[in-house]
Amino acid sequence: MHRGRSAMTCLYRCGNACAHPAPNTSPNRYFGEVLAEGISRRGALRGAGALVLGLTATGVAGSAGTAAASPAQASPVAHGLTFRPVAPTRQDAVIVPEGYSHSVVAAWGDPVLPDAPPLDLTNLTGEAQAKQFGYNNDYVAVLPLPGTEDRALLVCNHEYTNPELMFPAFTNHDELTEDEVRSTVEASGMSVVEIERVGRTGQWRLVRTGPRRHNRRVTRFTTRFAVTGPAAGHPLLRTAEDPRGRTVWGTLANCAGGVTPWGTVLSGEENFNFCFSNGVQAPAELHPSLARYGVDVTSPMTTRGWSRVDERLDLSLHPNEVHRFGWIVEIDPYDPQSTPRKHTALGRIKHEGATITVAPDGRVVAYMGDDDRFEYIYKFVSDGVHDPSTSARARAHNRTLLESGSLYAAEFSASSPGEIDGSGTLPSDGAFNGRGRWIPLVQDGKSRVGGMSLEEVLVYTRIAADRAGATKMDRPEDVETSPVTGKVYASLTNNTRRGAVGYAPVDEANPRISNKHGHVLEITEDGGDHTSETFGWTLPIVCGDPADPSTYFMGYDKEQVSPISSPDNLTFDKAGNLWIATDSTYALDANDGLYATPVEGPDAGHVRKFLSAPVGAEVCGPYLSDDGRTVFAAMQHPGEVDGSSFERPGSTWPDGGLPRPGVVCAWRPDGRPAGN
Ligand code: FEO
Ligand code: CA
Asked: What global pTM score does this model have?
């Protein structure tokens, strides 16, 4: 059985996107010199520090005490990462470092609502699934429940389903019953569940008894959203069901997200295009914009077959329904009766997620990636100012902050192009770096894009960014801000079309032809102000097998670095270490994983694998508990490998039977913080 990325992944998550032309064919300009394939790295390694860290990486705290005079020795204390890296493996299991334990917190089919029936693999129904934990958990957030240290809320996205692992003898959706199709719809969306600490450790588990009054499923058929912002009510959002264009049933293809400073959760609607059918019969005037968002306008395309049970997803009947997805949505997990919202002010793209930072003047800034080949990085700056108090009035005010503001797309240029000699070598400081600017798409409540109204910029944000001349990136995924330095980090997961005939050439911010393994980009806003319209940038990590000369790990000794491919979801711990979850489409002969690395100091770039996922799974989340003792991570699509089926699954995680996507926690039984 082939262990690489499954054709099923390609089909059900992103509609075989790699087999199709990238949807961004806009002619906006590229910058920089075309570089030769591959880049070689030069510059001195920080070797002495690497040696000491190699010793401390045994996981034996204090074992490097004999090298007390070395400045590098102090760094493990400063950044707190001393775990022994997990070796690359194809083992069908979750593997964490020596000295750690792990367990499943919640998995597909677990009860969410108190009256949820047990998971019945012989009878999957929409009604049952809408009460159970959904499939293919992606974003993970853990929020405290006031008044207790032993209860918390786990909030998850459920991005898509793997029908070949859900239904016996599955061949295509047309052969499923309507209720089976409905179960795949309702297995998507979001879950909010109460979890409880086990003993006094860093272990958490699902609360399975009692009222569980916060528990909630958010699904297409059960949850109505309000639309906010300038595009709410616009004719492009009006449908027969919603002639005012202000309410939408459900949320689709929820990928990553973020927790706001006011305690709500944001979720990105990503590959929503594959939930729709019959683009070929949509009104012809919509075909260009549909194609720009990846909707197939050449065939009836029913990848998921959902329009069989939800006519609104048939573009020939309800063409505007597609405009009601592709937004950042916000839910209040503390109030299961609250109406979640879709924020048009943050633009409509294939949103990976959104993470919020408060600028020095109190405005809030959302950084966002559009996950497709050659798409853009965006940021939103609120008009209003964050109120840090915890009063009900402040909370109500803060909940309006994402309803109006400025929207920008990023343009990257080289600060010192003279140093790039075109031979593929790096500047003498060891890394590509440059300058950039945030190009306004919306500002002062007005469109800044010629020929497009404010509402059109927000509904067709990709087209607006094309016209504005934003820089085409290698699939922007998570964008996160370091809580220690304020620097912003973006995952650019991979893009094998980079440099191919007919596509954008390499540039300094996307420097590898046929970029299989991706890279991490660092942005430093000018003046340390997240509302700045200019910034500096560098590429701290260029992923792959460290033996590959085109890789780069902040100059760290590559012999100490874990192989890593396709960075996807990011998070930071309180010490400012970057945690990177991977989705290795072009795997390095090892399962996906969760990695951690300092990004400052002498150990910056010392990437180490903290967790190895089951066969076929990518790692999502991740999320570190506030007390630092628990690492939460989602195992998405275990068993998703070529040839995998209900009868012969490629993984049997976690129960030894049919694979079930699930969220795990990892902790140290000795109570020490995770990473140590
Ligand atoms: Fe759903 Fe961009 O990963
Ligand atoms: Ca992702």
From this structure: 0.91
- State the distance from the centre of ligand 1 to the C-alpha of 15, rounded, in angstroms: 13
**Is the bond leading into 654 cis (omega within 30 degrees of zero)?**
yes
Nearest atom of ligand 1 to the alpha carbon of 569: 3
CB 352 near ligand 1, within 6 Å: yes
457 lines ligand 1 (CB under 6 A): no
Ligand 2 center–CA 618 separation, angstroms? 9
Ligand 1: which atom is nearest the Cα of residue 475?
2
Q: Which two tokens stand for residue 346?
A: 């943050």
Exposure string for 508-542, b = 16+ CB within 10 A, e = fewer: bbbbbbebbbbbbbbbbbeeebbbbbebebbbbbb
- Give the tens place of pLDDT for each residue, 335-389: 999 999 999 999 999 999 999 999 999 999 999 999 999 999 999 999 999 999 9
CB 206 within 8 A of CB 193: yes
The per-residue pLDDT for range 59-117, each reduced to its tens digit, is 222 222 222 222 233 344 457 899 999 999 999 999 999 999 999 999 999 999 999 99
Q: Please, which residues have CB within 8 angstroms of residue 65's CB and are 6 or more apart in sequence?
A: none
Angle in degrees, CA 167, 172, 175, rounded to 5 = 75
Ligand 1 contact via 634 beta carbon (within 6 Å): no
Q: What are the sequence ranges of the domains in the chain?
A: 7-270+326-627+647-667
